């Protein structure tokens, strides 16, 4: 995994420096961490609920991961891609019915009370399993959490649950919140949801709606000498152009999650003192996917789906829509996933002639106006890139005689139209790969999901062989066997095309040269920033 | 005084109907928009069927539209604006937090556009057809044609990014301990660019109205009489022509207040000002119906009050608007 930084200084310093900077996990220039300072960064949204145990989403983690910690965090070099946080070790039983966590000693909550296994048991049983958006699926068979002592938590499952899945879910799904705060009253209404209390390197200090969030240093943090920063301020900048201006005006020092639009990166990378970093998001891969409504007679035909796949020039999409900040996709697991990805799947090289031939074969001949049939195309509005790809797809389909009519909605209307009303033929969606296909990937193609569930198979697709494969993988305990099943899953999806995977991308950070220890883990923007510092 | 009171009473009764229509209309419009607050929420979280059902129930979205409208109106009767789904806080608090910022922005921008606009209008209208008149007319037209957000972005690039004279946005310095005069000065500095962006757009309107009004008044007999009396040109311009040309501008001031509120949506986003306009935009995106209703209600009250004040001012400024007419 090589880093990727651009700044004028890097360019001037020559290739030797370039090599050195890309080889080091730390892309900062000043090498000795310095204590103190206030880091100001851009935030483009204001999550209503800051409790990451209830809402496991990047928008919430971005702020609350500094306050509330998980059992383990993703890591570039740790065993199984994990680094310990609140848990020091985790061990799965061979029968898949229990997982034992050994917890860190001497950890205190921000209010001074000690952190114990009771907090883990409470978070898992009272929050992750019944309330958390992702935990409701992954921890559905969690029956009990035994706490033989203050530093041991044993998760007991009612049905065998693959340890690999639990392990892969730890970075995003295992935020631990204090039992003594949450056991009083209704968890959803707890005031701590808006002013979180955790064990993390930073304490929640203040939120001014529409202006900023302020976090301050936790002097009692368990990490030695950490955190380095005194304060973190998230400045709310709703306008797409604000973050770049604020960076240039030196009002903020960091803009993560592509707050600076791709089109501005080239210009901003030439501003002295600013660096563009595309590393630190490997664990947050978004997939550009064409969702297909199989209720449409034409789209139920595999030949038509293959034709559409052949009509898309993925390299062109990566180059023009993503300006190179993406890679082409082959299937439902992204190429950068270290555990599950396989390249051994059917592929659909860009070939307009072949696409036209397939459509002819399927019996959809071109009419006198050069059109075969008309489709309704709904690009998701959440990202510039999904909208732009919608425009591209319309042109690509026109080239093979399919008349795609674009329907542009805002987010709420798009969610309703695609996932509840099924009022689409093709949609462009950005599902997230969360480190394990069972967390949020298999649901994209599995049948039998109720109407209204977002980011799931709402295209009426049903493939018994694929459903059986997904069911089998979900109860296979052996890591190698389970991984092999998901490789088979990728093959089957790429062959039958319930949806078409086009590209994979992640986010870009832009920072001042003075910000150190950026991008040193695969979920950096949503990790705890205990070692982040400001030089000079 | 009775004249103003009669006007006030008549306006208040009319306003209640206006506000009721605004509330019901907005509610129905939002209901017609596809997707509800839960749809908007799960965009960033995802979730299974059970969780979605739970949320709809918690936020009261499983009730029928009529029930919700009736509940809302009933609460409104008790002056309760309800609870925001987005902020999980009383809407009254959320709005009160933002209202001063929007008012500050609007009042300053209005003062800028009205004050500078009419002054320049007088300057241009004093000598119709002169070089300065033409330069001002063309200049103001150019300003009027510029979209607000673009003007805002240009101001940011020039004064905040390149020259670094002014902050790029926000209403005050982040997490500072400033109080009293220091804080007021800090807010004033933060307001310079947004006020300029919002004010300059409407400046042209007042300038051109003032100028056109003056050209009109110049031809009136009383101006000829004033000239025949041997008054100085300066006195004729200020005391006779400009004063009479000013009246339509006052009417415009009231009408423009609603436009200003609309314009502040864009300006508040570009300059990250935590105001009502930006809040309204967020409320629509989040399908936070009660919050949007609250904002629209407050805005409508604001516009009604401003127009009432303008009417009262008008009644005093122009003796021709008598009590008899106010009753008509």
From TrEMBL, chain A:
Q: Name one Pfam family in it.
A: SBP_bac_5
Q: For this UniProt record, give its keywords in alphabetical order, as a comma-separated list.
A: Signal
**Main localization of the protein?**
periplasm
Compartment(s)? Periplasm
Annotated coiled-coil segments of the chain = none
Which positions fall inside the Solute-binding protein family domain?
A: 82-429
Signal peptide (from-to): 1-25
**Keyword Signal tagged:** yes
Family according to the record: Belongs to the bacterial solute-binding protein 5 family.
Q: Which PANTHER family match?
A: D,D-DIPEPTIDE-BINDING PERIPLASMIC PROTEIN DDPA-RELATED, PERIPLASMIC BINDING COMPONENT OF ABC TRANSPORTER
The name on file for this protein is: ABC transporter substrate-binding protein
Q: Which organism is it from?
A: Mesorhizobium qingshengii
UniProtKB/TrEMBL annotation, chain B:
Keyword vocabulary terms for this entry = Cell membrane, Membrane, Transmembrane, Transmembrane helix, Transport
Instruction: Give the membrane topology.
Output: Multi-pass membrane protein
**Coiled-coil regions, chain positions:** none
* Compartmental location: Cell membrane
CDD domains listed in its UniProt record: TM_PBP2 (cd06261)
Span of domain ABC transmembrane type-1 = 99-314
Membrane-spanning parts: 12-30, 103-123, 135-161, 187-207, 291-317
SUPFAM superfamilies found in the cross-reference section? MetI-like (SSF161098)
| InterPro entries linked | BPD_transp_1_N, MetI-like, MetI-like_sf
Q: Identify the main location.
A: membrane
Q: Which family does it belong to?
A: Belongs to the binding-protein-dependent transport system permease family.
What is this protein's name?
ABC transporter permease
Name its species: Mesorhizobium qingshengii
């Amino acid at each position: 995994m090589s880093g990727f930084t651009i700044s004028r200084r890097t360019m001037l310093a020559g290739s030797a420096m370039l090599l050195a900077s890309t080889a080091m996990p730390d892309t900062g220039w000043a090498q000795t961490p310095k204590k103190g300072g206030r880091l100001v960064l851009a935030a483009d949204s204001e999550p209503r609920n800051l409790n990451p145990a209830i809402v496991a989403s990047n928008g919430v983690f971005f702020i609350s991961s500094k306050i509330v910690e998980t059992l383990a965090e993703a890591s570039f070099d740790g065993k199984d891609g994990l680094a310990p946080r609140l848990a020091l070790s985790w061990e799965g039983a061979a029968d898949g019915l229990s997982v034992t966590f050994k917890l860190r000693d001497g950890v205190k909550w921000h209010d001074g009370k000690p952190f114990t296994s009771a907090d883990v048991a409470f978070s898992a049983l009272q929050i992750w399993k019944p309330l958390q958006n992702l935990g409701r699926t992954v921890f559905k068979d969690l029956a009990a959490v035994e706490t033989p002592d203050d530093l041991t938590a044993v998760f007991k499952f009612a049905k065998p649950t693959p340890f690999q899945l639990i392990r892969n879910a730890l970075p995003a799904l295992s935020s631990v919140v204090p039992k003594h705060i949450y056991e009083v009253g209704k968890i959803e209404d707890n005031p701590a949801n808006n002013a979180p209390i955790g064990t993390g390197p930073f304490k929640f200090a203040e939120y001014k709606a529409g202006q900023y969030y302020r976090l301050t240093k936790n002097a009692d943090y368990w990490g030695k000498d950490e955190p380095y920063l005194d304060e973190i301020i998230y400045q709310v900048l709703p306008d797409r152009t604000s973050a770049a201006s604020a960076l240039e005006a030196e009002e903020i020092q960091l803009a993560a999650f592509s707050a600076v639009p791709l089109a501005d990166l080239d210009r901003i990378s030439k501003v002295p003192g600013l660096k563009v970093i595309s590393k630190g998001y490997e664990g947050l891969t978004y997939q550009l996917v064409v969702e297909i409504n199989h209720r449409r007679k034409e789209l139920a035909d595999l030949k038509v789906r293959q034709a559409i796949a052949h009509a898309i020039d993925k390299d062109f999409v990566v180059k023009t829509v993503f300006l190179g900040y993406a890679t082409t996709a082959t299937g439902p697991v992204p190429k950068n996933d270290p555990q599950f990805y396989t390249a051994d799947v059917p592929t659909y090289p860009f070939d307009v002639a072949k696409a036209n031939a397939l459509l002819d074969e399927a019996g959809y001949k071109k009419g006198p106006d050069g059109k075969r049939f008309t489709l309704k195309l709904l690009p998701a509005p959440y990202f510039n890139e999904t909208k732009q790809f919608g425009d591209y797809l319309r042109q690509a389909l026109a080239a093979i005689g399919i008349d795609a009519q674009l329907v542009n909605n805002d987010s709420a209307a798009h969610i309703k139209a695609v996932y509840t009303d099924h009022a689409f033929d093709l949609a462009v969606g950005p599902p997230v790969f969360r480190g394990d296909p069972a967390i949020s990937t298999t649901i994209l193609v599995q049948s039998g999901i109720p109407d209204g569930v977002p980011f799931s198979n709402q295209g009426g697709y049903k493939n018994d062989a694929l459903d059986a494969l997904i069911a089998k993988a979900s109860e296979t305990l052996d890591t190698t066997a389970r991984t092999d099943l998901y490789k088979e899953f990728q093959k089957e999806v790429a062959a039958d095309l319930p949806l078409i995977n086009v590209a994979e991308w992640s986010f870009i950070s832009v920072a001042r040269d003075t910000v150190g220890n950026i991008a040193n883990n695969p979920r950096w923007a949503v990790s705890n920033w205990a070692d982040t510092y400001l030089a000079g | 005084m009775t004249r103003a009171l009669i006007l006030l009473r008549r306006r208040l009764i009319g306003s209640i109907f206006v506000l009721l229509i605004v509330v019901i209309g907005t509610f129905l419009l939002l209901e017609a928009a596809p997707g509800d607050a839960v749809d908007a929420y799960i965009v960033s979280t995802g979730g299974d069927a059970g969780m979605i059902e739970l949320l709809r129930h918690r936020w009261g979205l499983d009730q029928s539209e009529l029930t919700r409208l009736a509940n809302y109106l009933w609460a409104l009767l008790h002056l309760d604006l309800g609870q925001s789904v987005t902020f999980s806080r009383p809407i009254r608090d959320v709005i009160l937090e933002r209202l001063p910022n929007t008012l500050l922005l609007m009042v300053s921008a209005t003062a800028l556009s009205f004050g500078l606009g009419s002054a320049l209008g007088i300057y241009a209208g004093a000598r119709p057809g002169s070089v300065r008149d033409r330069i001002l007319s063309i200049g103001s037209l150019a300003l009027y044609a510029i979209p607000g957000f673009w003007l805002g972005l240009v101001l940011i690039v020039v004064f905040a990014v390149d020259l670094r004279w002014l902050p790029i946005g926000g209403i005050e310095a982040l997490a500072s301990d400033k109080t009293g005069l220091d804080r007021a000065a800090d807010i004033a500095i933060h307001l310079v660019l947004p006020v300029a962006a919002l004010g300059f757009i409407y400046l042209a309107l007042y300038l051109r109205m003032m100028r056109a009004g003056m050209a009109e008044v110049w031809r009136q007999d009383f101006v000829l009489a004033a000239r025949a009396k041997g008054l100085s040109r300066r006195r004729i311009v200020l005391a006779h022509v400009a004063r009479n040309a000013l009246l339509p501008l006052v009417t415009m001031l009231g009408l423009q207040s609603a436009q200003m509120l609309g314009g502040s949506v864009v300006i508040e986003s570009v300059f990250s000002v935590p105001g009502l306009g930006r809040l309204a935009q967020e409320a629509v995106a989040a399908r936070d119906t009660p919050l949007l209703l609250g904002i629209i209600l407050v805005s409508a009250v604001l516009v009604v009050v401003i127009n009432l004040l303008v009417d009262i001012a008008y009644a005093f400024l122009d003796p021709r608007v008598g009590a008899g007419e106010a009753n008509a």
